[in-house]
Please model this.
Amino acid sequence: MNDRTDVTKSTEQAPRVPESALAPAVDISENDVGIELVADLPGVPKDGLSIKVDGANLTIEGSAQIDVPQNLEPLYGEIRSRHFRRSFTLSRELDPSRIEAKLANGVLRMHIPKSEAARPRRIEVSAL
Amino acid sequence: MNSSFQFAGSLFPALTQLQQQLDEVFRMDGTANIRALSGRTFPAVNIGSTPDAVEVIAFAPGIDPKALQITIDKGLLVISGERAENTENKEREDDVSVYAQERFTGQFRRVISLPEDADPNQVHATCRDGIVRVSVAKRESAKPRQIAVN
Model:
């Protein structure tokens, strides 16, 4: 049923998220080694999630996959979109190349480490 | 799949949507009334019906399916449980600064009144990626059927 010819193929694997998307609830905390970011993304599978770093911007986008019967007639709804998006600005002492992300049970956990130079350290005083 | 998010054009869904959009724009920053409730309930639920069943979709990310209690009593479907606090940073608590704490923690309980034609004996619940789907079958007598003309 594909009657479209793609002249250029999209290189992005993750599905595109339309303009109107929900902002997921997040917890953000910082310690000596970096920043922990936890986001609620219910229904978002691993391949529906995209985390992008563009300069100082970190964008989390995801699309939930919800198995519902085709003939479902909605009666009541609190969640009106299956798309999530939220952006953050990273400060300079963070190292975006070493971000780690884990997704389990609809919860995304990210660790954004600080660059070595920005970590607090103790300077030993040597006695002469 | 998208059908669960498209609602008929009645007034109340439109108002809820407006409220949700306003919440998005004017994010609550915690400086309101000291007793103000956070606008979000947990877990958020969507409810729909098919000719065979009533479908309740609860958005409960980070909940262990085994720790979730789903009960039906006198036509009320109760989803309850507890979501633990973020514990990853607990051991280094002294030097942790918290910048945002929007995610729900603690005990929760949501009660949904099922329609008359729901059959409490035929319920099944599944959980995937933090979405719990409870499907309550409708009674045989309530299902639409065709009557043959002799």
Remarks:
- Strands of chain B lie at 44-49, 53-59, 69-73, 76-83, 97-101, 106-113, 118-128, 131-138.
- The first helix of chain B runs from residue 11 to 25.
